[in-house]
Amino acid sequence: MAEELLKIEHLTKKFEDNMILDDVSLTVHRGEVIVVVGPSGCGKSTMLRCINALEPTQGGTIEIEGQQISQSSKNLTQLRQKIGMVFQSYELFPHLTVLNNILLAPAKVQKRDKEEVKKEALELLERVGLKDKADSFPRQLSGGQKQRVAIVRALCMHPEILLFDEVTAALDPEMVREVLDVMLQLAEQGKTMIIVTHEMQFARAIADRVIFLEGGKIVEDSDPETFFDHPKTERAKQFLNVFTFEHVKHKTIKKD
Amino acid sequence: MPDLGLEVLLKGKNMIRLIGGLGVALRISLISVLVSIPLGILLGALMNWKNPITKAILRVYLEFIRIMPQMVLLFLVYFGSTRAFGWELSGETASIIVFILWGTAEMSDLVRGALSSIPKHQYESSEALGLSKVQTYWYIIIPQTLRRLIPLSINLITRMIKTTSLILMIGVVEVLKVAQQIIEANRMSSPNAAFGIYLAVFLLYFLACWPISLLAKYLEKRWK
């Protein structure tokens, strides 16, 4: 098995008295694609936010490449560079062009040579089909385009692991595909990813492991075939049933 | 054509005197703006702090200044405070004090609003990219705040200029007071002068404020 990249141990997260994450442990190996599913409010997004220390935690540890990351880490900004995050609402910087959105962090945080990063950024944009948008502003792009730019922005930092927080949830159906295709490409290239999503078909296609989270606990952790075809727990079965529509044809139309 | 009393404008130095009056109004506004914008930015940033005590104090200050009509503030400072504390204030100084108090309050509220209108996710996506707190403010938050703020604060400047028309009440000879003096002086020879003179005052205010609000509109469009 490949080396351990991210190790979460006994992670606990509370909002006041509400238990959001309850003793979550998860190890992610280099090159693995983990998909996290579960009902809304189960703590999926919070888990991602804890991983790059956007949320304070109340117990447990998170280690990336053997180094502990938390909001009080001294080298937090360095550790965060190892973790790329893509948000549901894209969160491009509206006052910067697409290219400058991508260049900002590599230039200001990593102090890399601007020309070299620019070359890389343009290549990546070309790969996601947006090279001609380099000088556009985010407001001129569609949702799917913005999300692809956000992915390129995260990639350009050369992160060790990418976190995707329901990245297609705010998109129109016809734009979902273009974003998912980019993520499938990344999986093929062997990128390590943790993906929170409600797209079950996609989850099945991309995942090496599926994590089913409920009530802040990991209820199932298995390969996608097992999870989708033979879920072990009753709760996971119920959850998966939500995504199938067998009985709708039986409805009757009343006429006066 | 009715007699609009326009000829009074051309008599003697009347036009120059009116422009001089506008100069006084503009000078008072300019000084007040120059002081209250930086002060307002400072207080507005403090209002976004989590400290409940600073927040409460600033809130009281803001509401107090806003609810009170500017005229009452002017009277309070010019007639009230000079009596009570025995200090000497010229009308112009009193006006500047009141305009700074008022402008700072308004400006701080604009800054507070602009800052809190930046979504929390903007901070997070910047920090997730590894930017430090300082870099996040410098590259992400402040540029966006300024874009929202500049058109609003330019409008505040025009409001200040217009409100200087009140300070004749505490004896400052600004453009409206000059106008009254001219009308008074010509009451026998040109009883209709009020129309022409006030028309000139109207045009002077317009010429002072219009370019400023055009600029605000332009910036608003550009940075939308």
From TrEMBL, chain B:
Alphabetic keyword roster: Cell membrane, Membrane, Transmembrane, Transmembrane helix, Transport
Residue span(s) of domain ABC transmembrane type-1: 22-216
Membrane topology per the entry is:
Multi-pass membrane protein
Q: What parts of the sequence cross the membrane?
A: 20-46, 58-79, 85-105, 166-183, 195-216
Domain of life of the organism in this record?
Bacteria
Mind telling me which Pfam families this protein's record contains? Answer: BPD_transp_1
Identification of the protein by name: Amino acid ABC transporter permease
This protein's species is Muricoprocola aceti
Q: What is the lineage of its organism?
A: Bacteria, Bacillati, Bacillota, Clostridia, Lachnospirales
